[in-house]
Amino acid sequence: MTSHAPALDVRALTAGYGAAVIIRDISFEVPRGEAVLIAGPNASGKSTLLRAIHGLLRPRRGSVSVDGSDLTSAATAIRVRQGMSLLPQRGATFGALTVEENIRAAANVVRDGSRDAVESVFASFPQLVPFRHTRAAHLSVGEERLAGLAVATVLPQRKVILLDEPFAGLAGEIVDALRTHLLRLKNENAALIIVEHDVHALEGIVETVLRLEHGTFSFRGSLSAYRGLSQHG
Question: What is the count of structural domains for the chain?
Answer without folding.
Answer: 1
